[in-house]
From TrEMBL, chain A:
This is Cytokine receptor-like factor 1. It comes from the Eukaryota. One of its GO terms (cellular component) is CRLF-CLCF1 complex. It is found in: Secreted. Keywords: Disulfide bond, Glycoprotein, Immunoglobulin domain, Phosphoprotein, Receptor, Repeat, Secreted, Signal.
Automatic annotation (TrEMBL), chain B:
GO terms for cellular component: CNTFR-CLCF1 complex; CRLF-CLCF1 complex; extracellular space. This is Cardiotrophin-like cytokine factor 1. In complex with CRLF1, forms a heterodimeric neurotropic cytokine that plays a crucial role during neuronal development. Also stimulates B-cells. Binds to and activates the ILST/gp130 receptor. Forms a heteromeric complex with cardiotrophin-like cytokine CRLF1/CLF-1; the CRLF1-CLCF1 complex is a ligand for the ciliary neurotrophic factor receptor/CNTFR. The CRLF1-CLCF1 heterodimer binds SORL1 (via N-terminal ectodomain); within this complex, the interaction is mediated predominantly by the CRLF1 moiety. The tripartite signaling complex formed by CRLF1, CLCF1 and CNTFR also binds SORL1. It comes from the Eukaryota. GO terms for biological process: cell surface receptor signaling pathway via JAK-STAT; positive regulation of B cell proliferation. Pfam families: PRF. It is found in: Secreted. It comes from Edolisoma coerulescens.
């Protein structure tokens, strides 16, 4: 078998076009093949194109007119195919229809422990370009000519790059991102920064949360400063956030209003606010005490760190990620001292909720018991407590 | 107890390199090796289904249509074809069949790696990389089976960086066709290899079983 010529040739072969443009393509059958123009038809992405758009330009050449092209269905190109009457494929051409890229925007960078630099950005286009777009992050030291190209992409998301080494401190860098596709290139604005301006660290390690003796409303948090602290000349400030187990709302610092569900409605007697105490770095450990917490409750605590006064500069760095949450629970005594808790603890809250649902259902479906309600239950609980008190005052049961 | 001591002694004896009965341990290895290769083949078949689905969608219609059957142009012959006469195939010796598998997958791996370098989306690159790693494992596994059965590995570079004598596709559409056929051939090879290894599994000499019985025969 001689090296066979392709059965047909399409022109243009693999063109790149702007959205909305029109195209006339031709399919010319090779002289070795006994096919005529009238034996051919076209498909685009598997769909047959209407014969009205065809024109025979010669005995073995058929053209097709495509108007106002949409963006390519897939980034590998639209498949325009010339077929023989029986459906066989004679030749194909990949159409790349799209838009040139827009300037990448929102370049943000950070340096972990002053050793490296990671940057991320956003593509300029709101919609798609329909074409595969390459992003290249470049950087150079200001006043020194040579451009460098970042090599490690996608380290912090799709549009990100990591520069692992050879970065100078106390030097302004120019950083920008180039986006390019088949239709053109777009360059972002240049961002200027010094590595020391964007320093962050790993989150604090070894976060331990423990009770403070028997105190029901306090927890003690201890953690280790990130190791980079002793290598580099910066200080660290910390921030703590904590939340109750079943809430999704984090509270930062120590100011927290206590919501009471016991009798009397809103948190009476619970409105004291306990400011967070951040203790200055004591050796390698740092600690802090959370106050104003709910007794008998599980709390999740996280700590993060911000390096500042880096080499003596006045600026703060970038907050680290939060440490993994650490859990601990406050103790609960038998006597709930005027607290915001519902009496008797968790079990009765569940019971009470169920009863409330039950009474709601009763009201709806059993027309007779209009007096039955959750209020009845509450009154009963109050009576129970009163009688419990009197019983205690009298003394132990015989 | 005495039974325990006996079985322990037998186990210890069997591990001494001097004993001729130790030949069985190699065949024991071959049995496991074949099983593992079979399992890996099935796993790759499964992986390929997902990979091919994703890749063909990336190529776009008509490549991802179920009845798509493009012509195999002359140039596509560089991919090792699995479509060989079945009787001819079965008539080969185990050694020849294993060698053919080894060579075919080595070359297929090369082509896939080239693909990996060119393909567009991050998801595809990730899937391809994972598949190539598994396929590399299969090549090594087949090599292991051949060694354990005492067959020499096929000569030549295990994985030449660029497939020899293979011109790059002259246009993007032809390249898409090449990619289609690469995946198709891979599919057929894996399907047939599974059958080959299944058959080979049953052929591994039962001497293994005999030895075990002897060891327990006290």
């Amino acid at each position: 078998v001689s090296p066979a010529a392709d059965p047909a040739v399409i022109s243009p072969q693999d063109p790149t076009l702007l959205i909305g443009s029109s195209l006339v393509a031709t399919c010319t059958v090779s002289p070795d093949f006994p096919l005529k123009a009238e034996d051919l038809y076209w498909t685009l992405n598997g769909r047959r194109l209407p014969a009205a758009s065809y024109a025979a330009l010669g005995p073995s050449t058929l053209s097709v007119a495509l108007a106002r092209l949409n963006g390519s269905r897939q980034q590998s190109g639209d498949n325009l195919v010339c077929h023989s009457r029986d459906g066989g494929i004679l030749a194909g051409s990949c159409l790349y229809v799209g838009l040139p890229p827009e300037k990448p925007v929102n370049i943000t960078c950070w340096s972990k422990n002053m050793k490296d630099l990671t940057c991320k950005w956003a593509p300029g286009t709101e919609g798609e370009t329909f074409l595969h777009t390459n992003y290249t992050l470049k950087y150079k030291r200001r006043w020194y000519g040579q451009d460098n190209t970042c090599q490690e992409y996608h380290t912090a998301g799709t549009y990100s790059c990591h520069i692992p080494k050879d970065l100078a401190l106390f030097t302004p860098y120019e950083i920008w991102v180039e986006a390019s596709n088949r239709l053109g290139v777009a360059v972002s604005d240049v961002v200027m920064l010094d590595i020391l301006d964007v320093v962050t660290t790993d989150p604090p390690s070894d976060v331990h949360v423990s009770r403070v003796g028997d105190l029901e409303d306090q927890l003690s948090v201890r953690w280790s400063s990130p190791p980079a602290l002793k290598d580099f000349l910066f200080q660290a400030k910390y921030q703590i956030q904590y939340r109750v187990e079943d809430s999704s709302e984090w509270k930062v610092g120590g100011r927290r209003r206590c919501r009471g569900t016991a009798r009397g409605g809103r948190g009476s007697g619970c409105s004291h606010l306990a400011p967070l105490q951040v203790v200055d770095d004591v050796g390698n450990q740092t600690s802090c005490r959370l106050a104003g917490l709910r007794p008998g409750t599980v709390y999740f605590v996280q700590v993060r760190c911000n390096p500042f006064s880096i080499y003596g500069s006045k600026k703060a760095g970038i907050w680290s990620d939060w440490s993994n949450p650490t859990a601990a629970s406050t103790p609960r005594s038998e006597r709930a001292a005027g607290g915001c808790d519902p009496k008797g603890g968790e079990q009765n809250t569940t019971l009470r909720r169920e009863l409330k649902q039950f009474f709601g259902w009763v009201k709806k479906h059993a027309y007779g018991c209009s007096n039955l309600g959750i209020k009845l239950y509450d009154q009963w609980r109050v009576w129970l407590q009163k009688s419990h008190k009197t019983r205690n005052q009298v003394g132990k049961e015989p | 107890d005495s039974w325990g001591i006996f079985t322990f002694l037998c186990a210890a004896l069997c591990n001494l390199p001097a004993l001729p009965a130790l030949n069985c341990s190699e065949e024991l290895g071959a049995g496991q090796s074949i099983q593992q290769t079979y399992d890996l083949t099935r796993y790759l078949e499964h992986q390929l289904r997902t990979l091919a689905g994703t890749y063909l969608n990336y190529l776009g219609p008509p490549f991802n249509e179920p009845d798509f059957n493009p012509p195999r142009l002359a140039r596509a012959e560089r991919v090792p074809s699995a479509t060989v006469d079945l009787d001819l195939w079965r008539g080969l010796t185990d050694n020849a069949r294993l060698a053919a598998n080894y060579r075919a997958y080595s070359r297929l791996l090369c082509y896939l790696r080239v693909l990996d370098g060119q393909v567009g989306t991050a998801e595809l690159r990730h899937r391809l990389a994972h598949f190539c790693a598994s396929l590399q494992g299969l090549v090594l596994s087949i090599g292991g089976v051949m060694s354990s059965l005492g067959y020499p590995l096929p000569a030549g570079p295990a994985a030449p960086p660029a497939p020899p004598g293979a011109p790059a596709a002259p246009n993007d559409f032809l390249k898409k066709m090449d990619d289609f056929w690469l995946l198709k051939e891979l599919q057929t090879w894996l399907w047939r290899s599974a059958k080959d290894f299944n058959r080979l599994k049953k052929k591994v000499p039962p001497a293994v079983v005999t030895l075990r019985l002897e060891a327990r025969g006290f």
